[in-house]
Design brief:
There is one protein chain. The chain is mainly alpha-helical. It is 54% helix and 7% strand. It has a two-stranded antiparallel ribbon. Strand 1 and strand 2 form a beta hairpin. The longest helix is centred in the middle third of the chain and has 28 residues, at 92-119. The chain is elongated, with a radius of gyration of 18 Å.
């Protein structure tokens, strides 16, 4: 059985918010953290999307689906994952909502409508992939996705620590063409 830490150091830098302090997760928070960890580590949200891979729309859809998944986890575990802690410590509920509102929402609010506008201009004889690659803002969106990926990878690492498991993402080397 893995050694589960009693106290987890929290250091997350989001575009509009910096979170620093500690978190003493209870059992419900650890179970919720594990569920969210699995969701994060198995999506494009924390795995690099190389320039020649995937569609930007699929990446945005994957990120958007984190809202529904996180809401479901919060509902399932209830108030126990958001109960106030002593000395201003963080709780899973706060960390999960901050991840969505400050880590993911800014990207989606900007890029979802911009990509949707471009997609609406696709000629019938052009594939979705070719049309997306012809978009003048595609490289900028990929850069923004990579920045968000780094934020979500830090969240995933925090969740892994809270669960007492090794970071599964660190078990695999980054692809050679990852534009860090």
């Amino acid at each position: 059985m893995a050694q589960v830490p009693k106290n987890v150091e929290v250091r997350l830098k989001l575009p509009l918010l910096e979170i620093a302090g500690s978190w003493e997760p209870n059992d419900a928070e650890r179970r919720a953290a594990w569920e969210l960890y699995v969701e994060l580590t198995t999506r494009v949200s924390v795995v690099p999307l190389r320039a020649e891979e995937g569609l930007l729309r699929e990446a945005l859809t994957s990120l958007y689906s984190l809202f529904g998944t996180t809401r479901e986890i919060l509902r399932r575990y209830g108030p126990q994952v958001a109960e106030p802690k002593r000395n201003g410590q963080y709780n899973f509920g706060y960390l999960a909502v901050a991840m969505l509102n400050y880590g993911v929402r800014p990207l989606l609010a900007t890029w979802h409508p911009a990509l949707e506008d471009w997609e609406g201009r696709r000629p019938a004889d052009r594939s979705r992939r070719d049309h997306e690659r012809a978009w003048s803002q595609a490289a900028q969106l990929r850069t923004t996705l990579n920045d968000t990926r780094r934020i979500l990878a830090a969240y995933a690492d925090l969740l892994a620590t809270a669960c007492g498991v090794p970071n599964l993402l660190g078990a695999f080397p980054a692809p050679a063409s990852d534009s860090r």
